[in-house]
Design goal:
heterodimer, A: mainly alpha, two-stranded antiparallel sheet, 3 helices, B: mainly alpha, Arp2/3 complex 21 kDa subunit ARPC3, two-stranded antiparallel ribbon, 9 helices, 3% strand, disordered N terminus
């Protein structure tokens, strides 16, 4: 198989992979469970949540306000609008691809040719 | 605090400052080793793939699935990334996801990055990879073998990563009896691990069906690969 065909097939595969990630983050994210995950369920054991605050005694009472709580994408919303979770997801996928892809491209072994 | 529970990782203050700092050092040393060793596993083909694997982990981590009434779980991604791109690059993928989640999405405290990276990026990825390597003969035998390998590696990575939290809590946490924390973490993550296993098996299975040559676990040694590539050209 010659190199251009190989490269085109790889690009097609990578493009499909990216599309799946974008669809999951941009669309399927709306179907995600809103319940606390296993870790949060443990740290909230002993507390009940009412009026946005935790009542009772639990590990999560020790948690501080998040340092980047003012970020426009805080809590996977856009400016606090949770209807835009999908947009936040797409932003996250692209940001992750840019940072990770950029780092790995810089780190890669250069081909000998 | 917000009403919606959208945070997925440890927040600031869940363990005390000395413990956070100590695991910050563990994370930095671990990631530095990963950066040094990742170079060997990255080339013109695998570097873009690895970037996409990280983006994919970010996407799938948003998809919390229910495991019990009032309790959900989400992918951690250790075994998934390790099987696809190797443990060093895989740990960096998960770590980058965790850093971006903390910086952009206020998910996982900044001072808790050390503990979160240690648990999910380092422990999860290397434990998942160790299990996958142990099962590699099975993974190479058949497609079913590969799926079983991915599932088991992912289940173990989830449960062992959750034990990382129990260790950190034992060293610097308070609010709940240690035995209770251990029991709940183990129980929840034994269930979450099933979801992690299914997602990992589906993903690895899909990549292997189309491009088995891109699955790190199924590739030979570096030297073999170079020879094969040279022969193909």
């Amino acid at each position: 198989m010659n190199a251009p065909v190989k490269n085109r097939r790889l690009a097609g595969f990578l493009g499909a992979f990216l599309l799946v990630a974008l669809l999951l983050a941009g669309g399927a994210s709306y179907l995600a469970s809103g319940s606390p995950d296993g870790l949060d369920a443990v740290t909230q054991t002993g507390c009940s949540e009412s009026e946005d605050t935790l009542q009772g005694q639990c590990i999560a009472q020790n948690a501080g306000e998040h340092a980047t709580a003012g970020s426009p994408f805080a809590d996977y919303a856009v400016g606090g609008n949770e209807a835009l979770t999908g947009v936040a997801g797409v932003v996250g996928v692209i940001a992750t691809l840019a940072v990770a892809g950029g780092l790995f491209w810089v780190l890669r072994r250069r081909s000998d040719t | 605090m917000t009403t919606e529970v959208v945070a997925m990782h440890m927040s600031d203050g869940i363990v005390n400052a000395p413990t956070s700092l100590a695991f910050g050092v563990v994370a930095i040393v671990g990631l530095a080793i990963c950066v040094a060793r990742a170079r060997r596993d990255l080339d013109d083909r695998t570097a873009p793939l690895a970037g996409l694997v990280a983006a994919f982990v970010f996407a799938v981590q948003m998809l919390n699935f229910p495991v019990l009434p009032g309790v959900s779980g989400h992918l951690l991604g250790g075994a998934l990334t390790a099987i696809l791109v190797g443990p060093y690059v895989g740990a960096l993928c998960v770590a980058i996801v965790l850093v971006l989640q903390a910086l952009l999405f206020a998910d996982g405290g900044l001072s808790a990055l050390g503990t979160n990276i240690t648990n999910m990026a380092l422990i999860g990825t290397f434990v998942g990879f160790a299990v996958a390597v142990a099962l590699r003969p099975l993974a190479r035998r058949s497609r079913a073998g590969l799926l079983v390998t991915a599932f088991v590696a992912a289940w173990v990575n989830t449960v062992v990563a959750s034990m990382g939290f129990v260790l950190e809590y034992a060293l610097g946490g308070q609010g709940l009896a240690l035995g209770t924390v251990f029991g709940l973490m183990a129980g929840f993550h034994a269930l979450i691990g099933i979801g992690e296993g299914i997602i990992t098996a589906l993903t690895v299975g899909a990549v292997a069906a189309v491009r088995p040559d891109l699955v790190y676990l199924l590739r030979g040694q570096r030297s073999e690969l170079t020879i094969t590539e040279a022969t193909v050209r």
